[in-house]
Amino acid sequence: MSSRSQILMCHPAHFDVQYVINPWMEGHVGRVRKDVALEQWDHLFSVVSQLVRVAVIEGSEDLPDMCFTANAGFILGNRFVPSTFRFYQRQPEIPLFSSWFDDAGFDVDDAMADTPFEGEGDALLQLDGNPTPVLWAGYSVRSSLESHREINQRLQIDVVSLRLVDERFYHLDTCFVPLGDGRVMYYPAAFDEMSLKQIRQRVPGDQRLEVGESDAMRFACNALLLDHTLITNHASDRLIRQLSDWGYETIVTPVDEFILAGGAVKCLCLIIDQHANPVGTGHVESPIRSTHVELHGHLLDSGLINRIFDSTNDAGGEAKVEQLTIAQRHDQPSTAQLRIIAPSADRLDMIINRLMLLGARPSDEPQDARLEPVTKDGVAPNEFYSTTIYPTEVRCEGNWIPVDRQRMDAVIVVEMGHRDQSMARCRLIRDLRIGQRIVCGVDGVRVNRPMAKLGDKEFSFMSAGVSTERRVELAVQELAWEMRRIKNRGGRIVCVAGPVVVHTGGAAYLSQIIRLGYVQALLTGNALPVHDIEYNLFGTSLGVDLRRGVGVHGGHQHHIRAINLVRGAGSIREAVEQGLITGGIMYECVRNGVDYVLAGSIRDDGPLPDTFMDLTQAQAAYAAAIEKTDMILMLASMLHAIGTGNMTPAGVRLVCVDITPSVVTKLADRGSIESTGIVTDVGLFLNLLARRLSQSDA
Ligand code: NAD
User: Fold this and answer.
1) Which of 431, 523, 606, 695 could form a disulfide with 496 if both were Cys (CB 3.0 to 4.6 A apart)?
2) What does the domain layout of the chain look like in residue ranges?
């Protein structure tokens, strides 16, 4: 046995559950059986002391968790890095541990300022089986990701950051054990997918022992490994066998009274003799990256700050507010400066991309956008920047260039020119050609997402909201007012509509609205014109007499006959001009010079000669039709409305009318303040709207 102590324990004379800082403590305040706890600790102490020398630190009356020495700090060689506890209840332990290490001759580091680090609870060293020592480190519940970078810099050690996602496994040592020979034992459900991938990349399959839920819940992984002996609170026969196959002896010594506070064997033991191999030769770079973003607007009442935190955490990063200026009046904006930390450069790009969508702006010294060439027609380089609906700029040779043809789900192609003559434009992936240069990553990309201002709520029932039936009349009144203003200034309104418009008897009202000059283009499929023309020719829509609401004998063939008639005439326009079609939506479009684009689908009968059956052409024709549009009215067509929404930049007023709330929410919830959803029957809606528009025109 070595003359130096290898383990530090703390006698649990003052152990108790007095507060709740983890889920295990809930319901256990004041319920610890002190005599049982003492007996279990004594037994563990004797088991460990038979194998290695154990030092014992005095506890303190006010510190009921001090017996969990593993959280005191982290030791490497002769250096002790004290913890910075996340919860104030445990912070007074630190000076006591630090002075013990000082007295024992260790070099005591300064604690990390401002960033939680909970010592060996979240930092487990693996010395062998890897070319260099590896520090497996947990973050998210207690320790911060930032502390991992700090530990890497202080100790020059390779730190592998693993994100914990289950509050019950709040420290890495509750769900992960580095064994000898590069092997590991762990409970997979405690980690996020990104971290499991890291474990799989670092440790081959036959070196990983995945622990099941029932072992994990009884703290089997909270185990102390001393050479080839694993000491734990519990291990199933299967786990004991698996460990034995790898040459480990398992000693089970129950400490379940301590589990009332969320700790077991490993938590009660701090390894203080970790210097077997020389470490820290050369520079070990941390993959952790950070940057700054700023926010401006109604950060607190709009819940934006919370959304920034949630979005960053969900993606495995951390957000830290470094500066916050709260508005003094409710109508003034607040500003904040945040530091965003991520486990890798790729993750940071992904998080910043998400935050820009929420309105955050990168605030570090800007860099030029990274441009990568297209190497295969129709395929973008892997790290391409994926566009949003918001006005965007990219930085090229120090100049910010506005991106043309803004739309979502596209990439940005940059054509470099002399001085500030470079051009940037959104392109669909399928249209890319070899040699074009594409923006990759988020550096040098600036998204100008308008922040909600209180003034925007002037007509709040129309702003990014979903109106219910009771509010439809009010919404229609407001919409009519807006449409009239657009018409008066010579603006453009595009109507996207599905065949339900005809089935619900709305065709006559839409025709009237077109006649009044409120629609400049109609985007639809094959079915709306077919049923509209069928109605004009036969008085039925899909064979149903709309006036009486009953099926007509032989009516099922009407739509085929209508299609045949238009095919015979050559096109809808020719059928109108030949006097074959005498009324209805398509008739009014032709007569009033309204553009229409018909996009085909697999459901289509016919099709009509005007229908694009090539979807690439149809998408291009839709995109051309919505250019410079002020408002898009989406009427009961999920397919065409979503298709159009994807190619519409922010700033265009979207009004979506559908009977299904989820369709409306999906379309209205583009995060842009200009979208409105109205949940109602489209026939009734058009009736109300036509009436309002003709009244205001009268
Ligand atoms: P869709 O499913 O994309 O959209 C229909 C929408 O109408 C749904 O969101 C639904 O909730 C909504 N709706 C239903 N009843 C409503 C009411 N009374 N008031 C308001 N909203 C109501 O389908 P689509 O747009 O009808 O057609 C998709 C494609 O299929 C188009 O290309 C179309 O041309 C083609 N197609 C349709 C028919 C047809 O009869 N529907 C026939 C052949 C081809």
Assistant:
1) 523
2) 7-271, 287-364, 365-455, 460-697
